Amino acid sequence: MLMKFGLPNADTWNTLPKMDTPVPPSPFENEFLTKFYFSTMQGTTPLTIAIVYFTSVHYLNKLIRSKQLQKAKEEEKKTDKVVKRLPAVPTAISKTSFFKFFVLLHNVLLCVYSVWTFVGMTSTIASTMGLFKMQIIPSFYEALNLNTENTTALRKLDVFFQSVCDSKNGIFSRVLSSTSKNLHNLEILGFWFYISKFYEVVDTIIILLKGRPSSLLQSYHHAGAMMCMWAGVRFQSPPIWIFVVFNSFIHSLMYFYYSLSCLHIRVPTIFKKSLTSMQITQFIVGGSFAVLHCFVWIYDVNNVNTIPGQPSTEAAKLVSCISTPDQALPVLINVAYLTPLTALFAAFYIESYFKKK
Prior knowledge:
By secondary structure, the chain is mainly alpha-helical. The chain has helices at residues 10-13, 31-40, 44-79, 97-143, 156-165, 175-180, 186-199, 202-209, 216-234, 240-262, 269-292, 325-353, and strands at residues 3-5, 296-299, 318-320.
């Protein structure tokens, strides 16, 4: 076996991350995209945008609630009935056909993009596992003069973690993209998924323009996702694949649902409940699986220094999947982010489907 479970590497967790760690090389050849890549990899970029977004939303929430209260008082005077739910105060632009078409296009595009990311990421993982099973691992066994008969029957879990954790040949590497002209590696897909988190704030803008305040769940969700994806891509932490795969899958369903709503196609309540349940599940399972990477140790198949007839034991050295403090930082950020997010989603689930109307 080329993978074992053990306690996390003490040196990784006892040392502070080096924030001056060089930014990974740009995966783009285009000069403009390269400059854009390096500018977005600066920690100040997602942090500034997240803070401005979060504070702006909650400032606008106060203005909208004030207008809602005023409108509610006017309705109570006209009808002599107590308004149980604050009415929406939509802006003029939200009533136009252009706005409605834009909202539909926005949801359709994000649905298609999420499907593209999910398919691209899962196919990349499958291709990388195939590369390890058929080429890299047999070569490693041969260099050590070990029996290669069992390599074809390696457990999928063993090959999976090897392909995920190996920084040179794994899903963060450019081995596949350079050999098969396939740009679907985690550098490319992860980067664009990170950028998409900035665009997704349009969801909040739409809600505000429709005259309703944005919830804490909404603003916290978007702001935190920016920081989590930045950290994972910036420090190339292996578990970030979980965020990309799980989140793109859920978003495929979520934006499909939103698209149907824009078309006034009625969706059964069971689908909405299931969608929220899957969102909560992805946080619990995804967060737990991310932490599991800290307990995974793999054999370094890239460092084989052997003398003919004298296999080197150093070549079979175990290395931790989370091998540096920089790679550990995104794990900590994601766990810290997912814990309150799970609680917020659970509260939303109870509020929406269990409390009496």
